[in-house]
Predict the structure of NAD-dependent epimerase.
Amino acid sequence: MKKHKILIIGAGGQLGSELTQGLWAIYGKDNVIATDIKDPGGILAQGNFEILDVLKQKQLFDFIAKNEITQVYHLAAVLSATGERNPKFAWHLNMDGLIHVLDAAVEYKLDKVYWPSSIAAFGPTTPKDNTPQDTIMDPTTIYGITKQAGERWCEWYHQKQGVDVRSLRYPGLIGYKTKPGGGTTDYAVDIFIKALTDKKFECFLSENTYLPMMYMDDAVKATIDLMEAPAEKVKIRSSYNVSAMSFSPAEIAKAIQKHIPDFAISYNPDFRQAIADSWPKSLDDTAARKDWGWQHAFDLEKMTADILKNLPAYL
Ligand code: AKB
C-alpha cells in the first residue's frame, strides 16, 4: 500500500489548525506533521508538531528528506492588511516560501502540493458580481499581487516541471477555534466574539460592503476534496474559484441579532475599506463544482447558529 506522509507549513494559523485535524482523520496522526515558526500550543499538541521556517530552504529540504514527506500543504503567508504595512516582507514570505516548496516538490518528487490563493488576486477592474474563473486580475494589495504571481508560478511548475500542485482562491474564511491574523475579511470573525462578550461591535468596513465568505468547515472540506480528487479531474492548475456565501456587515449583524436581539453594530471604515472595495462581491465557482464536485454546506444562517453555539467554549 502506498505510504503517505503529510507536511503542513503554517499549521498554527486559522486554517492550518483545522485542516490539520481534517488530515488526521484521513491519514492518522502519525502520518501528519504540523509545522510553524512558533509553537501555537492548543490542539496541535495532540499530534506531531515541529518548528519549521519555510524561508530557510535547506531546513525545509532536509526536513522533507528526513521525514520522507510525500505531500505538502503550504499555508504560511502574510495576509492583506498586514501585507500593506510590511510589503517587502509579505513579498519575501509569500513568494520565496512558495518557490522553496515548489522546488522541493521537484527535488523530492512529491506526490502533491497544496497552496492557497485568494479573492485578493482580483482587483478593481475585475467584474465584481459572480466573478468568473478567468477574467481580469489587477490586484492592488501586495498580498493580492503575491497571490496572482503565485498562481502563475503554480501553473508554470505544473506545465514545465510536472508538479501536481493544486490551489483554491479562498473567499474570507470564518472560523471560531483560532484567531485570524491580519486579513480584511476578519471582521466577520471578530463580530461573533464581540457579540458574545460586549453585545456591540465597531466594524472597520461600511455596512453595505459585500464580500464572498466561507465557513471554516467548508474551507477544510474544499481543500481536502480538491487534494483527494484524481489528478485528471484537476483541470485548473493556477487556482480554482470556490464560493459558499456572500454578505455585508449589515447582513451578518442581522443574522446575529436573530440570536442576540440586543446586539448592536456601528461602522468606522479604515484603510481596509479600500482593500475590500477592490475585491469581488461574489464568485462564480462553476469550474470547481463541475471538475471535482465542490459543494458547500453552510450558508449565513447555518454558520451563524453553529458559531454562536460553539464559540462560548473558546472564549
Ligand atoms: C484577507 O482578508 O486578507 C484574507 C483573504 C481574503 O485572503 N482573508
Summary: Residues 173 and 214 are 5 Å apart (CA to CA).
